[in-house]
Design goal:
The structure holds two protein chains of two kinds.
Chain A (H helix, E strand, L loop, with lengths): L1 H28 L14 H10 L6 H13 L14 H36 L4 H15 L2 H15 L12 H30 L2 H8 L4 H14 L3 H13 L2 H6 L5 H10 L3 H29 L7
Helix pairs in contact in A: 1-13, 4-5, 4-7, 4-10, 5-7, 6-7, 7-9, 8-9, 10-13
Chain B lengths: L1 H9 L1 H18 L1 H4 L31 H37 L1 H16 L4 H10 L3 H11 L2 H15 L2 H8 L4 H38 L10 H8 L7 H29 L9
Helix pairs in contact in B: 1-12, 2-4, 2-12, 4-5, 4-7, 4-8, 4-10, 4-12, 6-7, 7-10, 8-10, 10-11, 10-12, 11-12
The chains are: A mainly alpha, B mainly alpha.
């Protein structure tokens, strides 16, 4: 077990190093450097001085090693779009915005998703079952910025209840969360429904019913527990997804979060920010995969480590 | 083949999806003949017109007919959807075959590469590539193609491993067939169905990807129409000019949904054992 975890962590480090290598070299392969697009050409000595200051005169592999070395010490450089901060402090400033939306979305989608799933399992082929199926198809196939525009058309343009975007007041949270929450809710509801139906067909349910237990006890004391444990496995991939936010939703509703900053960084070619964000996201996903695999193994003793 | 069509026809949504997509394809192919205006025809005298007989879907902020731009947008979407899958198959199938058939070092490194690709979720890597490549139709196809072969590669590898162990492959091997004969004449025909299913699932994803990139401004450059770009342009006008956002979002949603219906039907018909889509 310990050996397995160590091997997985080593594998994770290799993957992250490869990811950083690819982003770093792609970044440097982009034609044009940060100091050669000035309107007034710099004197050659000054330019050499600047390049030397930022270490850009060194061969690229040395630059990469220096970058990794500094990154390991928590120094990801200075974002071009806001030179008075460091990349780290900028991320620390904008990330809570995204985390807030993500946390609310996870909470809501799990409660409502589980509820809808159970309802549609117990009331199969009724309107609620069809509603869940329709929402699931829409939520998993239609792009979330399309849903965002529809929500804006309904709630902001037609009904005039909620502003189309902005940040700072609780009402600004409503539409982004709604736009987000459809897809995970749909996935959870469908998953719960399938699990519930599967459990209901098992022998122990027949036994419980046969010995005369009331239906409520059968559902809530027996089926409920067994059907809900696998939902933990859905939580895993949802956390990094919602924690890093959606570029599209944040751009549509003008939410100043991580996704929006990825967008402005990409648009302004803010290389230190782009590389740092891609690394952050890669690390988050890597850790999530690792934890999910370990948790799977802890829950289900049949899984062996190889 | 008969069986495939029979099972496919049983799925009413898939038949409906196929019907709608046929219409969209016809619109896209004959866009020049069908559309009432030119897609880059600017008419400053009639900007931001609501839907009318003259402009069924209205006009945008510089007076371009929105229905025309939506019809041409279908062309953009379809070109991207199909071309991206051609690239994805071109990269994913050979790599999957290599990894699955030869195993060992090839398998190890291809699997690591797949892991690195999955470490970049969703479209972020594609956005990054677009920053590097610059806007334009060809560049979108490259950026999306390079980032969407992973699923096909995985399926190809898994199926190759599965088929490789079958007795009939052993038999062909025992008869002294060369590796390339086994790969292309014995294994490939047996894994073609799941690959078709993956392509079916990949097309709507590529259309979605193009719309997303264009929505963010990293996609199709003006004056070529793209639904994603039209949606983005509409954001500032939704208050008062609802039709600017409504028609492009509706077209995109219908197209992506119908392609998904078709993909579902294809999966049921071609590969009934394949579960866990959109993994």
């Amino acid at each position: 077990m310990v050996g397995y975890i160590i091997r997985r962590i080593l594998g994770l480090i290799i993957v992250i190093l490869l990811a950083s290598l690819i982003t770093f070299f792609l970044m440097h392969a982009i034609p044009g450097g940060p100091f050669d697009e000035l309107k007034m050409p710099l004197p050659a000595e000054v330019k050499a001085q600047i390049l030397k200051k930022y270490g850009l005169d060194k061969p690229i592999w040395e630059q990469y090693l220096r970058y990794i070395w500094r990154a390991l010490h928590g120094d990801f450089g200075v974002p071009f779009q806001s030179p008075t901060e460091t990349v780290l402090s900028l991320i620390a400033r904008v990330w809570p915005v995204t985390l807030q939306i993500g946390a609310i979305t996870i909470l809501l989608s799990f409660t409502i998703g589980i509820l809808l799933g159970i309802l549609s399992a117990l009331r199969q082929n009724t309107w609620i079952d069809y509603l869940v199926t329709t929402l699931a198809t829409l939520g998993t196939t239609v792009p979330n910025f399309v849903i965002a525009v529809w929500l804006m058309l309904i709630f902001s343009v037609t009904l005039r209840w909620i502003p189309t975007g902005g940040w700072g007041e609780p009402k600004h949270l409503i539409l982004p969360v709604l736009a987000y929450f459809l897809a995970p809710t749909a996935v959870i509801a469908r998953f719960v429904k399938v699990n519930f139906l599967e459990e209901l067909r098992k022998d122990y349910v027949r036994t419980a019913r046969a010995k005369g237990l009331p239906e409520r006890t059968v559902i809530f004391k027996h089926v409920f527990r067994n059907a809900l444990v696998p939902i933990i496995t859905l939580l895993g991939p949802m956390v990094p997804d919602l924690a890093t936010g959606s570029v599209f939703i944040e751009v549509t509703f003008r939410v100043p979060g991580l996704g929006k900053f990825f967008y402005t960084s990409a648009f302004n070619r803010d290389y230190p920010m782009i590389v740092a964000m891609i690394l952050l996201i890669a690390v988050l996903w890597g850790i999530t995969y690792l934890i999910t695999d370990i948790v799977y193994a802890l829950i289900d003793p049949r899984i062996t480590f190889t | 083949m008969r069986d495939v069509i029979r099972v496919y026809k049983k799925n009413k949504l898939a038949v409906f999806g196929f019907f709608v997509i046929s219409i969209i394809v016809i619109l896209a192919v004959f866009a020049d003949a069908i559309s009432p205006y030119k897609y880059d025809e600017i008419d400053l005298m009639s900007f931001l017109q609501p839907p009318s007989f003259k402009h069924p879907f209205g006009t945008d902020s510089i007076g371009r007919d929105l229905m025309t731009r939506i019809i041409y947008g279908a062309r953009t979407s379809l070109i991207v959807g199909f071309s991206v899958q051609i690239i994805a198959v071109g990269i994913g199938v050979p790599l999957g075959l290599l990894a699955g058939f030869y195993g060992g070092k090839a398998d190890y490194w291809i699997s690591r590469l797949v892991e690195v690709m999955t470490a970049f979720p969703g479209l972020l890597f594609a956005i990054f590539l677009m920053v590097w490549l610059g806007n334009g139709l060809i560049n979108i196809i490259i950026a999306l193609g390079v980032t969407s072969w992973v699923g096909i590669c995985r399926v190809t590898r898994a199926k190759t491993l599965e088929i490789k162990g079958e007795t009939f492959v052993e038999a062909v091997e025992a008869l002294g067939a060369s590796n390339s004969y086994i790969l292309f004449k014995t294994i490939l025909p047996n894994i073609i169905r799941p690959i078709i299913v993956m392509v079916g699932l990949g097309i709507p994803q590529a259309i979605f990807g193009e719309a997303s990139l264009s929505f963010l401004g990293f996609g199709i450059s003006d004056p070529m129409p793209s639904w994603g770009k039209m949606i983005q342009e509409s954001l500032g006008y939704l208050q008062g000019y609802w039709y600017m956002g409504f028609f492009p979002t509706l077209s995109l949603a219908i197209t992506v949904l119908c392609f998904n219906f078709v993909a579902d039907g294809l999966r049921d018909a071609l590969d009934p054992r394949m579960y866990g889509r959109r993994a």
